[in-house]
């Protein structure tokens, strides 16, 4: 999901819903949880 802002308002909203494209995205780069040991 991406937001575009202008004049203190949301002017655009992009939402990715294609399951095949979503499956190819590496979300680990935005995971800020600590990695469990082991």
From TrEMBL:
Annotated protein name in UniProt: Uncharacterized protein
Lineage: Bacteria, Bacillati, Actinomycetota, Actinomycetes, Kitasatosporales
Species of origin: Streptomyces avidinii
